[in-house]
Records
---
Amino acid sequence: MKVLASMLDNMKAISMFIADFDRTITDRDLKIDESCISMIAELRGRGIHTSLVTGRKQTFMEIFLERYQGVFESIICENGCRAYLNNDWHALAESNCHTLVIEKFSEAGIEFDYGECIVSTEALSESEVASLLSDISGWRSIVNVDSIMILPPGIDKGTGIRWLQSMGGFSKEKTAGIGDGENDMVMRELCGVFGTPASAVSSLKDVADFVSSEEYSKGTRDFLGFLITNYSLPMKGSHKI
């Protein structure tokens, strides 16, 4: 476990916790870790704003929110294109050309998935996706561990995090986050304290404040334990779920 010594000089406060979804609150096989969910629920019970920031589709996250009511106050999904806050969904990106991108992949006979705004594939490399989309202005691809996500112009997870921070008045310094993939690098830039599980990509671990010796969701539980032990949190029961 790596921890920056400067973080332990004094107790700090956090007001928001954000986490990636796949391989962060799930195990390697993408099974949700109920113990991890319980620890996040404890943070929310103490008055911490809890959120997920994921590339998953809005339809998937709607089902997830129904199952885990009261645990997460907000969701950023489709890699920053869509957000859930105050019991409502918000569009953070225009989906212009979304249909055209889908048509391109369909005509090429490539396996892909898509949401309200995002398109993703495990069948192509970044360069192959770029070639396919060469005549669609602004749309770009980003690596997410074993898949490629195709996004509207100027959109990434940071789009959703900045929106959420501005809506809730949360500063970077009081935001804690954890992720594991290349598309989580922008999360590091927007968090005062950032952790990764041992299973995260090397480039992300290199810039993290906390790198767990545990993999996947166990690493997130390790990080949550670190926050609970070393950061100033409101008393239990101070926030009504």
---
Amino acid sequence: MLKNRLMQLFQDNKDIGPKAVRVEGKTEDEATIYLYDAIGDWYGISAADFVKELSAIESKTIHLRINSPGGDVFDARSIATAIKQKGNVIAHIDGVCASAATYIATSCSEVEMAEGSFFMIHKAWTLAMGNADDMKATAGLLEKVDASIVNDFCKKTGKKDTEISEMMAAETWMTAQEALDCGFVDRIFDGEEVENNWNLSAYDNVPEKVKIGMENAIAKTEPILYDRERFEKRLSLIEAVSSRH
């Protein structure tokens, strides 16, 4: 049975995150911006909102604090691009950094990860509708998205593309030490551990430690209801991107 994992991830977490970009402690030298939600304008933080807040920060150093279950690949790519253009942005992984949140983190100039946090990479998901030709075109788009992510991870880690591809295909969850050993993060910090409160049921290989705290999140989960307007918007975007390749 085909799982609509992307919609499940958004729906499962729609009542958990703050749905707003928070910026604190802005000074001439430093500022902190929080990505404590799913990524995407369906039920999380949109790229438009995040980039607007990021662009308004004029501090010399920006601290990006991350606790996110992941989300929309296109929104995440837009956020990652804005971070690279901004300059000195330091990522601090406070809890879960999964899926699309990982290449936002690795787009930063430095990445540090709290002891007890988790970092997860996997192959891209999307939504699609149509005939066999449409499905083949969508599969081709996903392969290009995966190749782009693999390329970024190779630059960050120094690993071969085949190794990164295998890790993504296996939905690889890493502890802070494992992420450091693999080159995804630059150092580990002793911060206050953030207990997972995300519903990560959409993923296959969630570690037992990460599952602690999921009960409250799952209790908030309602049956998946598809928002037709947003669904059609996403299909239109996929079609537009496909036509450019």
---
Amino acid sequence: MKKNYFLVFIAILCFQNINAQLFKDAKKLLSTGGRGLTEKDAADGIKEALVNGTGESVKLVSILDGYWGNPEIKIPFPSEAKEMESKLRSIGMGKKVDEFNLSMNRAAEKAANEAKPIFIAAIKGMTVKDAINIVKGQSDAATMYLKNTTSPELKDKFQPIIKTSLDNVNATKYWSDLISIYNKIPFVKKMNPDLTGYVTEKAINGLFIMIAKEEVKIRKDPMARTSELLKKVFGN
């Protein structure tokens, strides 16, 4: 019975390219007893597919404009400082605001690659029970599993890298300059939000948005079998 769960899981969730015959193939495997397919094969296939799928998501956000060029995950001016943004634009500081916004997104792009080994460790730690729960879950069940098991570590890992990246792309300087100018405007409430914490949170959220999109796509779309293990799992 466990073997059946694993095979159905692979048919539904495999983060690899599968063709339109996937579900027919899975059904055939079930009816023929898997032709030597073991639970270890199935578990390894799931993990290999998830590693590849999360790796693709990380690659998409870590390239130039991975955040900045994607409206779904682009990091905006801090929401708690919207009044500040409006005031600065009204006094001719729009270009400086835009430079700052770009620099935040560049910092996120530079940090994104650090997520890959964290995801790999979480996937390797996946149990049979985890896999079955994902099968029975919603269309973002794998994403939520990774989010629940990796978020604290991602935050710890991302924060110092984001801080360094913010410094390297001059975001810290832009922010300091903007804060200084804004706080000199008469009658405004003085502020200085935690820039590193804000960009870290937005960078991690954006990464999971992309993983969720990948999961939904992979559950539905035809994809290719790219390794001998996956050929064995799905082959006739």
---
Amino acid sequence: MKVGLIDVDSHNFPNLCLMKISAYHKNRGDHVEWWNGLKHYDIVYKSRIFDDTYTNEVDYCINADEVIKGGTGYDLQNKLPDEIEHQYPDYDLYRGGANRAYGFLTRGCPRHCTFCIVSEKEGNTHTVADLSEFWRGQKEIMVMDSNITASKDCEKHFDSLIASGAWINFEGGLDIRFLTDKGADQLNKMRTSMIHFAWDNYEFDTFDKLKRFRPMLNKDDRDIRVYVLTNFSTTLEQDLERIYKLKETGYDPFVMVYDKPNAPQIVRDLQRWCNNKWIFRACERFENYKGGRECLKNC
């Protein structure tokens, strides 16, 4: 069979589903390549992770006997068959894949946040694989789980990441509200360049945990980042309060904008001020930042 692959998002971040599909077909002896509009294929797979907010899909005339679409960018119900889901990914599909592994140890999240589709799509956190399913000695491991700390197997998974000796990147961040003392100690034993938490809503049980665990985490302030969700359910004053409190407590705040294409200019300026660390460290208050001053005058 001749198989074509289309990464609809094309955001220069490897598509795990396509890597597994490629491995599955290559193991069957099929020919797999990136789709070429001048060729005919037996099957073409189109994978799309993001919706119209981030990805503008172009409709091509695809010359194939069968076209299969999948990914959350199309709908939340489609899933890979088990025989493909548990394939060791074809890292050769993307440039530089030999030194980095991608995968999920757990799926799901118990939070049911209204701005996130994970709970609806995957349910509560549950283990789906062990590390050997997608890692074979690569120097870096991208852990793509949405809420690994909510898993009853979290400490077991953390032990396997420590034992790997690889650099660990928690792509989806960590939920500090589920973190335990042992989990904090395990994070200290991992090779991580940066740890990500989140303070999404204006409520202080999250901040209480952030404040409690900060002395336990042996990381420089610049190496523990906290995502701050804006333009969703908070005011500018609440956004600034969270940013200032995080900085005072020894974290690196990082503004995430919900529905960024339609966000007001002041939120965009807030993001630029906070996330450009040269500006953020040189100008400690948003009201002293030129873009902030101009926007606050017009509010």
